[in-house]
């Protein structure tokens, strides 16, 4: 029997953004479901992702990674996965918020974008030196965090390792699916942690420059945009798998 594959894809700007290509993706997945687990990974919280599934032709996934990786939701069982996010003693959202508000470059996002495990700010065109300074300031106050900056505007402060990449690794280990059989797709900086986790990546054609700048043989830069780019990347990696299998047989 064919071993199970895993597709973990961002939503906004990746699968969502073009209705025609989304319908093509849904049609493809109707036939591929028997050999793929599907996970949506979003900056939005789980409840918002569930609304999108209900209001579009998005196929029902096996799980949802929400809140930039701070939530993992088991769709079939309608409950959160246990032991996620991991308990981090060096995390206090009230301290994180207070420190962030000390910086004039940052503005706290509305409460609907924040949670016990995610403190989000707006910050226009922040550079690496600013992010390092902020990280050092947080560390000096005993806060062990991940800083996720995307679209030159959105800064998410999360408990260390509780990002999209960490959540993806948690699911691959729980489901016993290898990295080479895991595809991740995205369009912006908050997806970068998934591409750093050792999986095979798909960067859609409409992605931000920060994500397109990631250079690795494990990352495919699609020409197609939105869901069309995801399908293009899946086809690319499937062809690579067939080629490598044929090479092993000849040898």
Q: Structural class of the helices, strands and pairings?
A: alpha/beta
Tell me what the CATH architecture of the largest domain is. Answer: 3-Layer(aba) Sandwich
What would the principal axes of the Cα set say about the shape?
globular
Radius of gyration: 18 Å
CATH homologous superfamily annotation of the largest domain: HAD superfamily/HAD-like
Mean pLDDT: 94
Order of helices and strands: EHEHEEEHEEHEEHEHEHEH
Per DSSP, the total helix count is 8
Helix content class:
25-40%
Residue ranges: pLDDT <50 for 5 or more in a row?
none
Distance between the termini: 23 Å
CATH topology annotation of the largest domain:
Rossmann fold
Characterization of this structure:
By secondary structure, this protein is an alpha/beta fold. It folds into two domains: 5-84 and 162-250, Rossmann fold, CATH 3.40.50; 93-159, Alpha-Beta Complex (Hypothetical Protein Ta0175, Chain: A, domain 2), CATH 3.90.1070. It is 36% helix and 21% strand. The protein has helices at residues 19-32, 46-55, 93-100, 128-140, 164-175, 192-195, 209-212, 226-250; strands at residues 5-10, 36-41, 63-66, 71-74, 79-80, 107-108, 119-122, 145-150, 154-159, 182-186, 200-203, 219-221. Strands 5-4-3-2-1-10-11-12 form an eight-stranded mixed sheet, with helices on both faces. A four-stranded antiparallel sheet has the order 6-7-9-8, covered by helices on one side. Strand 11 (200-203), helix 7 and strand 12 (219-221) form a beta-alpha-beta unit. Helix 1 (19-32) runs parallel beside helix 8. The longest helix is centred in the C-terminal third of the chain and has 25 residues, at 226-250. The protein is globular. It starts with a strand and ends with a helix.
């Amino acid at each position: 029997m064919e071993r199970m594959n895993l597709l973990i894809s961002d939503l906004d700007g990746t699968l969502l953004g073009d209705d025609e290509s989304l319908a093509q993706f849904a049609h493809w997945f109707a036939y591929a479901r028997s050999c793929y687990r599907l996970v949506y990974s979003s900056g939005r919280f789980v409840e918002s992702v569930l609304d999108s599934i209900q209001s579009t032709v998005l196929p029902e996934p096996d799980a949802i990674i929400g809140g930039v990786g701070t939530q993992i939701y088991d769709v079939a069982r309608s409950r959160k996965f246990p032991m996620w996010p991991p308990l981090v003693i060096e995390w206090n959202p009230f301290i994180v918020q207070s420190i962030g508000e000390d910086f004039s470059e940052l503005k706290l996002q509305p409460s609907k974008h924040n949670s016990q495990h995610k403190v989000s700010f707006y910050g226009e065109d922040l550079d690496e030196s600013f992010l390092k300074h902020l990280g050092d300031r947080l560390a000096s106050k005993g806060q062990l965090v991940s800083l996720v900056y995307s679209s030159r505007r959105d800064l998410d402060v999360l408990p260390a390792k509780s990002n999209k990449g960490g959540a993806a690794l948690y699911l691959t280990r729980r489901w016993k699916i290898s990295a080479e059989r895991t595809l991740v797709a995205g369009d912006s900086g908050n997806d970068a942690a998934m591409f750093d986790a050792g999986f095979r990546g798909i960067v859609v054609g409409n992605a931000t420059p920060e994500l397109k700048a990631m250079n690795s043989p494990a990352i495919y830069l699609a020409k197609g945009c939105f869901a069309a780019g995801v399908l293009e990347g899946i086809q690319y990696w499937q062809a690579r798998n067939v080629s490598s299998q044929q090479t092993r047989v000849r040898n």
